[in-house]
Design a protein that fits this description.
Length: about 110
Amino acid sequence: MVYENRYTEQIEDDITIQEETKFIEQVRPKVYSYITETFGEPQGMAFTPSYDDEYPPTLNISLNNKNEEVNEEMFQFFIDYLQNELIIKHAAVHIMYDNETETWAKEY
């Protein structure tokens, strides 16, 4: 089905949405496993696919850890894992901490 997205005012098709949904379903367990092994059990994790070229797909992760337990090198290794191992070419990644205002964030 082809339709105009009322929010982006662009023509879209449900095949693209189905493909993105299938990709997220395949990647989610791998990301969850990596996060659990590296950062600890996540409190929550959400993928938001991109529905237009203006905004990248988004991965939001909420951790119970305090932010001093995760350093920049660990965060960059995670970004490298997403790019090189899972072949996610473009995304916005946010790691948030329980009861903390600071986050790790990067768009690539």
